[in-house]
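Me: I hope this is not a bother. Any chance you could explain this protein sequence and its structure tokens? It all follows right here:
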Amino acid sequence: MARMSADERRESVIRAAMHEFARGGYHGTSTEVIAKRVGVSQPYLFRLFPNKPAIFLAAAERCLRDTREIFAAASEGLDGEEAALAMADAYVRLIAEDPDKLQMQLQVYVTVAAAEAAGDHELGETVRKGWMELWDAVHVPLGGDVQGTTTFMAIGMLINTLAAMGFPPEHRVWEGLYPEARARRLRREV
């Protein structure tokens, strides 16, 4: 078996960190468990990343980037309502197929809030920058419509909350957010 390069190992660490932080949060996840998941020693982990906050930040940035890329791919060649529906469907599929993405997002928001409250603004600044890039990834396909972008992002955050609470897509609470959920529920009732 070929040895992994440092870049490949770094990628492995980011994927493992996303999984572990998604499940345990920043404070509930040790670098030891991340290193173990990747199959490296903690000293090697710290050759790839200077400290735990750097690992968390890399995972947070990856989570935001992955979501941005999903939006960009879904909206390619589309605009307006067509783009909004394609991005919404792609996002709902993303968090359904990879629940760690949703859980990591939620952990990022909680960790930023805690860091800000403690006077540490570095993580928040980086995450806010990534979130604004996410905003722009939606804003452009929606034709630069601020209200449309705001509504899309607000509904997305509500979707995050409902999904995190475990509401299945066919539950009536989704009817106004995700048209396919209403159609599935009506088919079930017939």
Remarks:
- The chain has a mean pLDDT of 90.
- Residues 35 and 45 are 6 Å apart (CA to CA).
